[in-house]
Amino acid sequence: MLGVMFSGRRPVAKDARGNFFIDRDGPMFRYVLNFLRSSKLNLPDNFQEFDQLTEEADFYQIPPLIDALNKLKLTRTVARNGRNQVIRLTLDRDRHGLETLLTVFAEKHILQEIFKGHDCISSPLAFSFDKEQADSSTTAILQEITNYGFEVMTSLSHPDEDKSINEWFFLRKR
């Protein structure tokens, strides 16, 4: 449409100063223009006006923009309607701190996503550490989980005479 408008094959409205006048949604046109420049759809994460932007893309007759909008809208709808993902991490230490067992409970695909280099054939995934490795390794695993968008929702501690058990529950919203 823009090409047709400026080719001279179709009359285009101009304002009093001779500037081209297109009576459309100015804020939406910024996204149209960005798409025309880069052939990529770059919208803010909180963008909600898909129908309005699709109308603009239709007005300007830009099928690739319409397709990109439809795909992004579908992706965001699936993500919004998807299930939240949960990880339960249990740290079991003997009374003397000589042996630490760290167990990660999650769906298999989540374990495979986060712990790529480990054998994630089934859930749970267990790590065993000696006294020297326990704290730094546990901290590294906790950090890795948060690096993948999980947030700590709650933590519990169960101390007794022979051992202590700490649990963390992480949530990633989908």
UniProtKB/TrEMBL annotation:
InterPro entries xrefs: SKP1/BTB/POZ_sf, T1-type_BTB
Organism superkingdom: Eukaryota
Segments forming domain Potassium channel tetramerisation-type BTB: 2-65
GO biological process assignments: protein homooligomerization
Pfam families: BTB_2
Name the record gives this protein: BTB/POZ domain-containing protein kctd6
Lineage: Eukaryota, Metazoa, Cnidaria, Anthozoa, Hexacorallia
